[in-house]
Amino acid sequence: MDFAYDISIIIPLLDEKESLPELSAWIDRVMTAEKLSYELLFIDDGSTDGSWEVIQQIAAGRPEVHGIRFRRNYGKSAALYEGFAAARGRVVVTMDADLQDSPEEVPAMYHMVVDEGYDVVSGWKKHRKDNVLMKNIPSKFYNWTARRVTGIKLHDMNCGIKAYANEVVKNIEVYGEMHRYIPYLAKNAGFGRITEKPVAHQKRKYGKSKFGLSRFVNGFLDLMSLWFLARFGKKPMHFFGTSGILMFLIGFVMTVWIIVAKLYHQSHHLPYRAVTDQPLFYLALVAILLGAMFFLAGFIGEMISRSATERNRYQIKDRF
Fold first, then answer.
1. Do 276 and 210 sit in the same domain of this protein?
2. Which tens digit of pLDDT belongs to each residue from 245-268?
């Protein structure tokens, strides 16, 4: 397959006008020194500080520089989605616009994809320059959880600087806030050669971070969603049906046991309570109702899945 460039560098940004000229010049120095052809795609995610005007100034007279501007802020996933769609390089690199990611890392990551055959190379901020309490500790816990759930042994799943084979970004869909888990999306799409590279990490030079602690809560919820979709997205009845039948059986057995116990005590003239006076009876009814609802949810999910336009979409590696 022919590509227009060796590397496509995608930079999503929101209100980062101070750092853009310096970042652009830095990238150009590195790519020129390495004799790598490249395109630079700035994705302006609804900036209000004049970042778009700066991007236009940078792009003047430089055909390798392109810009995409959203009418409002849609989020990093939307920016990466548009960048991936527009990328024409053999290797696609993403990096943040805040100068905390070093362009010096790009050539080595490029060669790891091209020469060593990796599908995804994720950066690893081994020595972070962030606040320990606000970012480092939560990040370690978040990454530990991500490793356990996804089975991908990355130390820094959400690192901004990553390199992908072009085929990877053209065969995954980034939406919502799933940019944190692109390696997992790639794995689920059949691109399993994923590795990491320790990268330099700088302190933020201009502006302030756009992310708060809420991203860790949202990130965990997104991770659970991805895990569920990857495992049960095309077979929801396997989850809901199994859970529903189990709950129904538990409730049914509890109900029968309560009734039988009452009849036994009654027939032997032993003290007993009415079935409806026992809290356990109502718990059993709740279990039966939830079981039936879960089973129906699985049935409806199965019908929706079978009607989906992508129900038979598969990643084919080779064909002859």
1. no
2. 999 999 999 999 998 988 888 888
| Number of domains observed in the structure of the chain | 2
* pLDDT surpassing 60 at residue 314: no
Does 216 lie in the same domain as 291?
A: no
Burial of 178 from C-beta contacts in 10 A (0-12 / 13-18 / 19+) = buried
Q: Are residues 257 and 145 in the same domain?
A: no
The range of the structural domain enclosing residue 182 comes to 5-232
Please give the Cα distance from 273 to 258 (Å, whole number).
10
pLDDT, mean of residues 110-128: 92
Looking at the fold, whether 64 and 148 belong to one and the same domain comes out as yes
pLDDT of 22: 95
For 266-301, the pLDDT digits (tens) are 888 888 888 888 888 899 999 999 999 999 988 888
State whether 182 and 264 are in the same domain.
Answer: no
Going by C-alpha positions, the residue among 88, 87, 69 that lies closest to residue 79 is: 69
| DSSP per residue, the chain | ---SEEEEEEEEESS-TTTHHHHHHHHHHHHHHHT--EEEEEEE-S--SSHHHHHHHHHTT-TTEEEEE-SS---HHHHHHHHHHH--EEEEEE--SSS-B-GGGHHHHHHHHHTT--SEEEEE-SS--S-IIIIIHHHHHHHHHHHHHH----S-TT-S-EEEEHHHHTS----TTGGGGHHHHHHHTT---EEEEE--BPPP-SS--S--THHHHHHHHHHHHHHHHHHHTT-HHHHHHHHHHHHHHHHHHHHHHHHHHHHHHHHTT-----GGG-HHHHHHHHHHHHHHHHHHHHHHHHHHHHH-TTTT--------
The pLDDT tens digits of the residues spanning 24-58 come to 999 999 999 999 999 999 999 999 999 999 999 99
Instruction: Verify that 275 and 130 share a domain, yes or no.
Output: no
